[in-house]
Amino acid sequence: MVDTAGAGAESIGTPSEPDGPNDSELTIFDLAPEEDSGSDTLGRYRFQAEVAARDCLAMLTQDAIDSIVCEWHEDFVVTWTDGSVELVSVKHREETQGPWTLSELCKSGGLAHLFDRWCACERAANVRLRLATNAALKPGKGNAGVLARMCGPEPEITAGLTVMAADVARQMLKIRWKQPYPNIPETPECKIADIPIPEGFLDKVMQFLAVLEISSKPPHRENITDVNIQSLLVPAVEELKLVNVDLENTYRAIVDRIERANRDESDRSQLAVYIADPSRVRHSTQLQQRIGRRRITRDIIRREIVFTTVQLPTFPRGQAPVVAPGGATLRRKLRRGRVPSDEVAFAERLRSAWYTTWAERRSGLAGDENDLLNLSTDVLDMAFDCRRHARAQVADGSDFGIKMNDLLAERLKVDALPSTPPFQLNHLHLRGLAYQLCDECHFFFSEPFDTDEEAS
After folding, report:
1. For residue 52, which phi and psi values (nearest 5 degrees)?
2. Any idea what the Cα angle at residue 332 is, between residues 331 and 338, rounded to 5°?
3. What is the strand order of the sheet 65-72 is part of?
4. DSSP class of residue 85?
């Protein structure tokens, strides 16, 4: 967790101040980020959003990723379910500019900025760093390509690491002459080779390289859309066993959603007040609301999936029909409700259709149970509504099960649900789920009775 008791950081959400760096551990989101005045270029926004989309698409099938928070400390932050966070800086470089050199990577490539933000987070053990760029890294001794191979907890190259760290340190110290990074010390201006490295600064740079990844995986701006769709979205759709997904519109909706989170500037003044006001605790609610607007979760991404208008078959094609287990309780309830025998048989068929569809469409991830609970709650609410109307439309004391079943067929539609289903369904699947819930004794087609006693 991130300790914010050091210089330049304030505790949020608690009225008392910690006594020292080890007295209070807070998450990175308790530390208000600096404003980034260079984040208003539309081209940069779009490329940044498409790079963030790569992690968002991975989140669809990887439980290890918890969420993405846009424009917080860096271009975005990946939060992991193990409590760690990864600050990601995105840098696009035109092909005409050539590969990154070491000095350019530290300055224009944002390594100095990333280092400063990492220090502002008190160099917490749960904070990792990533510089994501579309451009190549210049090879050769002492250059950016070798630096990338020296980064991370298990570097590919270890020989000469101290010398490389000293070169990076001097590049940062040189940048500090012109740019006011509070966590990079000031030194006298001189030739770069003669810049004295302040005591302890080299050790910080070594630690910085140990938690840093320099990634050249993002494609160029002209190609990133196609690459992301084919290499990330298509495999995710296949793994989740989704059908009739409109890939291009889905991807566009996801990137647009990320851009909206990036551009949330509705309360920049609130953040400024939060930083300036000594009584910061009373502003923590607004700060947390801002974080919430910038957070992208797995459920948000799944809701952005766009399906084509092709009607989904009730039973999956190319498979033998599967009969759902159970069903005896449903049959007793339908008989007690005076539902005709042929409709009882059809109800059993629809229950099997739901059973097969749920087995095929569920993702296998931790959120499946919540998805099923939410969908079941919506279906139950509509079933009870149908029962109320059925009772109101029959004479006192008359059986209402037939009318209730008719109303279910009439009203239980996908587009009538209050929330979007977690995957594509048709109307018959919803009725099948309703019959399954009836079989599980969540509701009756008559006044309640003891189904076990009826069986005996």
Report:
1. -60, -35
2. 90
3. 212-215, 127-133, 85-91, 74-80, 65-72, 295-297
4. E
Taking a C-beta distance cutoff of 8 angstroms, is the pair 333, 444 a contact?
Answer: yes
Instruction: Give the ranges where 295-426 is alpha helix by DSSP (H).
Output: 298-303, 328-336, 341-361, 368-392, 401-411
Of the pLDDT bands very low, low, confident and very high (cuts 50, 70, 90), residue 378 is very high
**Which H/E stretch holds residue 134?**
none
- Backbone phi, then psi, for 353, in 5-degree steps? -65, -45
Domain of residue 188, residue span: 28-303
Give the highest mean pLDDT range of 321-330, 416-425, 429-438. Answer: 429-438
Check if the beta carbon of residue 32 is closer than 8 Å to that of residue 275: yes
Q: Is residue 1 part of a domain?
A: no
Q: 82 near 64, Cβ under 8 Å?
A: yes
Q: Is the pTM of this model over 0.70?
A: no
Question: Computed from CA positions of residues 271, 29, 298, 53, in that sequence, does the dihedral angle turn out positive or negative?
Answer: positive
3-state secondary structure of 391: helix
What long-range pairs does 307-310 form, CB within 8 A, spacing at least 24?
307/242, 307/244, 307/245, 307/246, 307/424, 308/244, 308/245, 308/246, 310/244
Task: State pLDDT tens for residues 23-55.
Answer: 333 456 666 665 554 434 566 678 999 999 999
DSSP assigned state of 26: B
Judged by average pLDDT, the poorest of 75-84, 132-141, 395-404 is 395-404
The amino acid present at 156, given as its one-letter code, is E
* Domains contained in the chain, number: 2
> Is 316 part of any domain?
no
| In a shared domain, residues 216 and 344 | no
Q: How far is CA 268 from CA 29, 32, 35, 385, 389, in A?
A: 16, 11, 9, 45, 50
- pLDDT, residue 306, reads 87
